Amino acid sequence: MKKILNVFKRYSIFILLICAFISCDKDYNTIGTNIIGNKDFATDSARFPVLAYTKKVKPVQTTGLSSNLLGVFNDPEYGPSTANIVSQMVPQSYNPTFGTQATVDSVVLTLPYYSTLLETDDDGNSTYQLDSLFGSDPIKLSLYQNTYYLRTLDPDSNFDEAQIYYSNANETINFNNFTGQLLYENGEFLPDPSEIYITELNEETEENDTLERLSPRLKTLLPNKDFWQELIINQEGSPVLSNQDNFVNYFRGVYFKTESVSNRGHQTLINLSNTDAAITLYYTYRNDNYDSSDEDSEEYLSSEYVLKFNTTRLNTIESDTEYADGNTTDGDENLYLKGGEGSMGVIDLFYGQDDDGDGLSDVLNEFQNKKNKWLINEAQLIIYEDPNKVYTADDYHTYDRIYIYDVKNNMPLVDYVDGYDPSSNTSDPYNSKIYHLGQRTESVGGAHQYKIRLTEHIKNILLKDSTNTKLGVVLSTNVNNVSNARLLNSDNDEITTLPSGAVLEPKGTILYGSNSNVPENLRVKFEIYYTDTETEN
């Protein structure tokens, strides 16, 4: 990920929060003595066995995502992957009247980038930083007319549910075989963080006046006005412009295709739901009320017709990397986390033999026997990065976040909710949910670590007999984005969904697992800090 600037500023806004949690960031909380009668309360900790292994991710749903990934990116650990976008388009209005002699003057494509305003000077000029940009080398970007019909509703559900398309759509459909008119091409495309100025020539001063300042975006003229003239303007009064169903069958949308032109390339998140994301046709038409004797009367008037992306759209994600399931008995030496149609980690807490055959490990039974004896102060899952396999140049992994979730119920853990982790930050996902999910920190021996707090989850297992479900571990672009994306043909599998933040993660990382070949000090650790209420004076 691109190194984020102003690190001190980023962290300073959390000083109060960190102060509030500083006692919780110790290994355990000290509980006072002589609380009840003559009995003292002793604090202690215990480590419990844990199994950790890698799980291959099947093709994942890419419709209904909050954003879309675009580009070609060569991850240092996992190699190149390509993310393309296919989207329907719909007009902002139907049954338009374009006017007499309506003629397209220009067509403009607008795609806003995710960005953060850094500062604005006295002249009103703003400086921005691009967010969610991975890599810094150009790629080839082509925009084609798509000729494949994207269904909105699924016929297998009697048209009651939305049609789902998956990341492997270029294997099952191959949109490269359904390209119509080439609408735009840029052989050296790279998002620009510069502010966009909309200007107009001032005839009195003969200088350009700034009409509007816009955040960073791709805003470019599309060639071939004749194509858009025939596609839209010349269809006035036609049924194809009368409603959405007719229109999306007539003009089946666009295909953003990306190709590599350099060793590294880049991928970026695009928000096609942004109100400014559009293809806009600017056109003129003859004024039927034109009066040549009136100097204020204009012979031709201007207007626009806007096409938006806010309907069915999907990502195709392609990679040459082969992924495989790990060792579900002895655990893996490494956990391979790769976003999209990649791989993830699976954690099985209290792992061990079930000698009494009750379906629970003996070590879990032993723990649950502490129900009226232990007060849980904190439960931690600590996972270490493998410095021998992780690319460390350019602070590549500095701002990685991992997200952990209940893979049986496809939901966050109870520790995630605001009542237990109030550090939600919608404007800065890197600094969101830092109490539960932690952040990448330096560790002894040079191996970075992630500390995940599972305190409330473990309390529920102890006190409420909650099921000890397996946990999924993924790399995420946005830990606030926990909506689920289905995995193809996975209804009977261990893993059936992937958090959307992991679907949109182009990077990968490699962590240590739980296998006995991993040095003990670097294996996945599961530790509970507790107060023993049965300790006597």
Biggest β-sheet description:
8 strands, antiparallel
Taken as a percent bin, the fraction of beta residues is 35-45%
Rg from C-alpha positions? 28 Å
Quaternary structure type: single chain
Instruction: Please mark out the parts with pLDDT under 50 across 5 or more consecutive residues, or reply none.
Output: 1-38
- The general outline is elongated
Number of strands: 30
Helix content: under 10%
In words, what does this structure look like?
Helix content is 9%, strand content 36%. It is elongated. Residues 1-38 have low confidence and may be disordered. It has two domains: 7-57 and 323-532, no CATH class; 68-318, no CATH class. The protein has helices spanning 7-12, 15-21, 169-172, 225-231, 244-250, 362-368, 455-463, 500-503, and strands at 42-47, 50-56, 68-75, 79-87, 90-91, 100-112, 115-120, 126-130, 133-134, 139-146, 179-189, 196-202, 207-214, 217-221, 254-260, 265-270, 278-286, 300-308, 313-319, 334-338, 343-349, 374-384, 402-406, 411-412, 449-453, 471-475, 484-486, 497-499, 508-512, 525-532. It is built from eight helices and 30 strands. The longest helix has 9 residues, at 455-463. With 537 residues, it is mainly beta.
